[in-house]
Amino acid sequence: MSLANKYRPQTFDEIIGQEHVTEILKAQMKSNKQQHHNFLLFWPRGTGKTTAARIIAKAINCLNLQDGNPCNKCINCQTINEGKTLDYIEIDAASHTGVDNIREEILDKASYPPASLKKKIYVIDEVHMLSKGAFNALLKTIEEPRNNVCFILATTELHKVPETIISRCQVFNFKKVNNQEMTKHLENICTQEGLKHSHTALEVISKISEGCVRDAVKYVDQVSVLGDVNEEHITKFLGVAPESMIENFLQLIKEGDKTKIFTQIDDIHNQGVDLHNFAKQVLMYMDQHFLEDIDFLSQVSEAFTEIISNIRYYPYPTIVYKIAINKHLDWIKNEGWRIKNEKNKEENLRSKVQDLKPTTPASTDQSQPTTSETKLEDQTQPDNDDLLQQILDSLEEGSFKNNLQDQIVIEEVTDAKVKIIAINKIAEMMLKKPENITIIQKVFSETLGRDVMLEVKFENKENYFARKLW
Ligand SMILES: [Zn+2]
Q: For residues 127 and 155, is the Cβ–Cβ distance under 8 A?
């Protein structure tokens, strides 16, 4: 039997982290005054709603309540636990499993008295997903409460449940289990199971299961297959990074050595850490340590937010890390090459003008007719390849520059516009980011001595060169 099943709560007391709800439910069951016949349980995703619904169902029907908890021994408790009674019906409104026709079931069959239990119980999970017809049937049925039927509705999206339903139910808000409670719970399980474990390893599991007890217990179960529940095994089995790895990584970013950072990204990836999870873990870590280093962490959090939003769309997660970190690292380190560029601006311009002079045909040379504006441009400007090289030269060494090198070409330079073709998707993506486009536009304008807009287009490398050849 899996640990998740073995430790699935069977009584209110075994549900962890929901005392604000379970104490009320127990008191209500004890008093046996169930004025409210129907319940609406509101849960954050993955907190085990059917488990609690089943406990309520048992408590309502139990023949031998134990301080408000179901006894789990009487015939009623047992038949519910074993799923052997027709009086206990679980319906999943999201997947339409449980009964053939929800509307018909609620409208017609709910009114039949229970066959063996005290009360017939309907558990409708994700009730907000019911069809309109089913909703109306449900409303009609609960409008005229009967003593021998009870609805336990559960939802992860309370705002989607009609007010008319909510007002006829007793609503219970469940919450995510916090990390301390979760870790303590996992520690108890490990002790009972005789599993060797480290406290930090269980903390990591608590964090990544984000308040879902069932997931957390499942992770312990999976990792224990490798032996001890320790950080090394967690990394191996779940692709989850130990906290020391996160700390080291942030330290490297702080030190700002790109080569080391990028090597570390590859290392983390090669160790089997899921980089999507890793980004989430880093953000969680930063959240907890935010006050310790606000300026640095807010910069880094921007990079990681970007990583999380982009990582799903790229087959190579490491490059997403490198691009985002590279970009934000430039800001972290004295605002990057933009500042460097500002400082060298005048000097650059001066030297460019000087460079151009000897090769520029004398402007007094009247024998060369100027047939068009473009022609004039050609005379006073370096050719496109040279121009591009100048632009790239003014960027700081790093992956941003490397990603543009050989991956972009200047298609056309006009008075007010520079058309760039990116022959690589990453180069296109990097160039199109608003903050990058502003900066590059500025560099172009400075180099050309006039304001220009940048237009970036992607063209597949083969197409581009084929077009050029023709
Ligand atoms: Zn019982």
A: yes
Q: Which residues of the chain have pLDDT under 70?
A: 33-36, 45-48, 97-100, 331-382, 397-399, 461-463, 465-470
| Cα–Cα nearest to 235, from 192, 267, 189, 193 | 267
Q: What separation in Å is there between the alpha carbon of 82 and the centre of ligand 1?
A: 13
CATH code assigned to 3-173: 3.40.50.300
**CA 62 to centroid of ligand 1, rounded, Å:** 4
Kindly list the protein residues that place their beta carbon closer than 5 angstroms to ligand 1, a single-atom ion.
Answer: 62, 70-71, 74, 77
pLDDT at 36: 60
> Quick one: pLDDT at residue 341?
45
- Whole-number Å distance, alpha carbon 66 to ligand 1 midpoint, is 8
Domain 336-358+378-469 in this protein, CATH class: alpha beta
CATH 1.10.8.60 fits 179-238, yes or no: yes
Contact 91, 105 (CB under 8 A): yes
For the record, the structure tokens of 308 come out as 């999380």
pLDDT of residue 259: 92
Helices (H), 194-288: 199-208, 213-224, 231-238, 243-255, 258-270, 275-288
Please report the pLDDT score of residue 355 as a whole number: 52
Residue 399 CA to ligand 1 centre (angstroms)? 66
The CA 65 to ligand 1 mean position distance, Å, reads 6
CA proximity to 204, closest of 249, 247, 238, 243: 243
